[in-house]
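Data card: per-record layout.
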Amino acid sequence: MISVIFQQTVIITTFVLGMMMVIEYINVQTRGMWSDRIQSSPFLQIVLGSLMGIIPGCLGTYTVVSLYVHRVIMFPALVATFIATSGDEAFLMFTIIPVTALKLNIMLFAIAVITGIIVHFTVKNKFIGLIKEKGLPLHNKNEECNHYDPKHILTNLRNLSFTRALLLAGALGLLISLSTGIVDGSHHLNTLMHGSQNLTSVNGAEHAHDHHGEADWIRISLIVLLVSILYILLTVKDHFLQEHLWQHILKKHFLKIFLWTFGVILSIHLANQYINLQDWISANLYLVLLIAVLIGIIPESGPHYIFVLLFAQGAIPLSILLASSIVQDGHGSLPLLAESQKGFFAAKIINIIVGLLIGAAGLYFGY
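The structure for this 367-residue chain is written out next.
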């Protein structure tokens, strides 16, 4: 099991750091024009974050967290993203309750935008838990990290530095592992979604969930990301490679994100050996709203599947499923937990308040 947890950690860490590298590349290549436009419009940030959040899975949320860590977007947009995302639950909902899933995502988007706007006007600190030095470094057009050209590939390979060779080997190794099935959807990637045939008991019945589609989506996304990273590594000059990719991203973020992700996943796995969260929730439906909101703090998808299944069985109303979706973020919040515990808990507190208010209002009016 440790080896599987290790591979899950590698998958999450690879995507987060890869997105950071691509974002930094685009930002320097365009001299910050795209990020300047986003940074100048808090409302655009909130809408963008909400749209990224409703993308099924955690990939959109990873991207927004990367932008927040680099101070491209502000805290209200981060909160909106966390409210909008349902993590891996979105895949299950679109499979077994597609019409409700569509309605739910529309509601989540609206709630996320409204909440983001309220947070913007009420919270003064727009970068909670971040330090000033984490912004994306920009350079003028005369500096050698600009003007990328595919023709630099041969020159870079002829004068191959140790750093470039190390990064190329790592990216190529991961790409081959994913492409050839060494890390495949039938084992490690499916385990990231709690197994290719995860059996969950609801009212005495067991339901199997096939997550091959989710694993394929993750694999394809990672392959595209790694191909993009290989292009960057082959074409950029040594200055960008050393100062931006190695010093600014990998040395500052890799170990922190990897260790936090590994530790959290391992802790959740160990806890599940002694506590069957799903059975306990099913036996205490009077507290299900509060439980759904509190369980949402866990940066994991597995414990939240129960609420989707309970709704599909008619055991809980839509308001509880909506509250659960508002608060939980799947694996999407793990990188933020690694980078800024203060930012993580600040966002979670707001999500909990919104989830409780929406859920309680829904129960009161019979939804």
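Known properties of this structure: Residues 203 and 297 are 25 Å apart (CA to CA). The chain has one domain: 2-131+150-364.

See the next section for split statistics.
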